[in-house]
Amino acid sequence: MAEATTDLRVRLRVLRRDFRLEVDLTLPAQGTTAVFGPSGSGKSTLLRAIAGLEPDAVGSIKVQGDVWQDEHASRPAHWRETGVVFQHTALLPHLTVADNLRFGWRRAGSPSTLLDQWIERLALAPLLQRRPESLSGGERQRVALARALVTQPRWLLLDEPLSALDAERRAEILPFIEAVRRDAGIPVLYVTHSVEEVARLADHLVLLEAGAVTAAGPALEILNRADLPLALRDDAGVVLEARVRERDPHGLLTLDTPAGPLHAHGREHVAGARLRVRVQARDISLALQRHDDSSLLNLLPATLVALTELPGGQVQVQLDASGVPLLARVSHRSVERLTLRPGMPVWAQIKAVALLV
Ligand SMILES: Nc1ncnc2c1ncn2[C@@H]1O[C@H](COP(=O)(O)OP(=O)(O)OP(=O)(O)O)[C@@H](O)[C@H]1O
Questions:
Q1: Mean pLDDT throughout 103-128?
Q2: Nearest alpha carbon to residue 198 among 158, 234, 232
Q3: Could you tell me which SUPFAM superfamilies the record lists for this protein (predicted)?
Q4: Shortest-distance Cα residue to atom 17 of ligand 1
């Protein structure tokens, strides 16, 4: 029964002078739904409308039989039971981290175990007596996440929570966001313009373009589609579900993936761990024969499916590796030199150091 879930039914329109957002979406009650699109496509407008922060939004938002908004009324933001974290979330400057957390927690009447749990899961214990102005950007976002979570929201809405951070800080905080996804047990709406974050975090994906949804569905299915604009970006690639088979003493991982075994480098993953590995098109080179005499550790047999000319003398190559679609990017000259054409068997070669998991 649709009414029994916390799926968000969202039918919304926002009209501005030079911009129109019009969406009709069901956001699943389980897991993380990423909203991805170029700058100005309306991602934040959609999130803010769901949070009740867009006065110009008209339409309806329903969750589990509750109406947050319809043609008659719109619940104010604080009655929508959402936890919201923005790129720059304001913490209360005169309160310590501990008091910032207690503030939202007390108002929501949540159990004290919840406060302790999120302090532990987000590693906040050393920060509790600090004031917001003394925190780094990444620390501040961890506190903002905890503050949202201790109110026991029905939906967690994250608007580019990492985009103000540099790559190193982002890498530090991503595992915490993964922990939220895994342990919070509440659905997350995650607005981002980073493919890497979508690949790491998303279960479902909504693509927005100029205020309209161009695709929505299971994240890996959409990320790996060759017919969407995502496939033409410089960082195009596919994402594979993987399981760690072993880790050698130097930290090299052997992963089992549906496309075949792959070697990769990464954090302290242990045998049996499940993870996602993103294989970028520009990290795959093609050979007509198997070469065991190079430093390339990953050699996957594949069939060439299609070739698409790209600007600048590059060619996008769609491959099928044991039924799994892969994308490779090669030079036009290589296509001629190897006389590549659809139906040909090839070897997809990938450097292990290109695969960071
Ligand atoms: N308060 C506002 N008043 C008027 N126009 C706005 C307002 N906020 C956003 N816009 C415009 O609405 C459109 C959508 O903006 P929005 O912030 O939702 O896009 P976005 O996809 O989140 O972009 P970004 O990735 O750059 O944050 C843009 O054209 C933007 O300039």
A1: 89
A2: 158
A3: MOP-like, P-loop containing nucleoside triphosphate hydrolases
A4: 44
Tokens 């922990």 — which residue? 179
> Mean pLDDT across the stretch 20-38?
95
Centroid of ligand 1 to alpha carbon of 312 (angstroms): 31
One-letter amino acid identity for 157? L
Per the CB < 8 A criterion, the answer to whether 218 and 203 are in contact is: yes
Of 67, 69, 65, residue with least CA distance to 57: 69
> pLDDT tens digits for 71-92?
998 999 988 989 999 998 889 9
Residue 72 CB neighbours (<10 A)? 7
Position 60 scores a pLDDT of 96
Least confident residue range of 129-133, 223-227, 264-268: 264-268
Whether residue 44 contacts residue 200, with contact meaning beta carbons closer than 8 Å, is answered with no
Of 13, 15, 41, 157, best ligand 1 pocket probe by most atoms within 8 Å of the beta carbon: 41
Residues of the chain with pLDDT > 90, as a percent, come to: 71
Q: Is it the case that residue 1 has pLDDT exceeding 50?
A: no
CB of 193 within 6 A of ligand 1: the answer is yes
Where residue 318 falls (left for φ over 0; alpha for ψ -120 to 50; beta otherwise) is beta
Which domains are assigned to the chain?
2-221 (3.40.50.300), 237-354 (2.40.50.100)
Distance of alpha carbon 47 from alpha carbon 241, whole angstroms = 28
What average pLDDT score do residues 21-33 get? 95
Ligand 1 atom at minimal distance to the Cα of residue 48? 18
Q: Are 43 and 197 in contact (CB under 8 A)?
A: no
Distance CA 11, CA 175 (A): 33
Pocket test for ligand 1, best of 12, 43, 198 (most atoms within 8 A of CB): 43
